[in-house]
Write a structure and sequence with these properties.
This protein is mainly alpha-helical and 188 residues long. Helix content is 54%, strand content 0%.
Length: 188
């Protein structure tokens, strides 16, 4: 039965939060004390808050920040998720040392775009395979396994899954861009 009740939508919750939810949300990244509206949409589920995404953006990742952001931006671009793409492009582009051309290429470029170093092009090709095909062809798989360690491969796959989920939630919740978000390049 379709739910039209506001309690069943993914509208971001507003403080004050239930104490258990507030404790978990305190672990989420904030920008100048601002908690993203998408994170507040996650707050409808304690389980989702705990198991969802936050554990993949830590300092212990086997991937560099730049590699993680290539994966995240590409997944969000492939899922046409302007909300999450814009947040990551705005917050992490400088730290990841992306050029404007590379940022645009995460949305519009092909894996062989000259903006990328060979290992980054392979990363984009792998993300495209995981998201669009659910796996890798034999040639890409062989190169992927030759370049990335088993631990890095698992992290890449986990990021693809997590940010595909984030993209689906953001689109279902119809989140408008955050005020600071980078504009989403048109067309893929």
């Amino acid at each position: 039965m379709p739910a039209d009740d506001a309690a069943n939508s993914l509208t971001p919750l507003k403080p004050p939060f239930d104490p258990e939810i507030a404790e978990i949300l305190a672990l989420y990244p904030q920008r100048n004390g601002y908690l993203l509206s998408l994170f507040r949409s996650f707050a409808h589920s304690k389980r989702f808050l705990q198991k969802g995404v936050p554990n993949l953006l830590d300092q212990e990742s086997p991937l560099s920040l730049r590699q993680r952001e290539i994966v995240i931006l590409r997944v969000c671009a492939l899922r046409d998720c302007a909300y999450e793409w814009g947040v990551h492009a705005a917050i992490f582009a400088g730290a990841a040392r992306f050029t404007a051309t590379q940022i645009a290429a995460t949305r519009r470029g092909a894996p062989d775009d000259p903006a990328w170093a060979p290992d980054e092009a392979l990363l984009i090709e792998a993300v495209d395979g995981f998201i669009q095909e659910g796996g890798l062809g034999e040639a890409v798989k062989a190169r992927f396994q030759a370049v990335f360690t088993a631990e890095e491969q698992l992290e890449i796959i986990a990021l693809c899954g997590a940010y595909q989920t984030v993209s689906l939630v953001a689109r279902l919740a119809a989140r408008p861009p955050e005020p600071f978000a980078a504009p989403f390049p048109e067309g893929a």
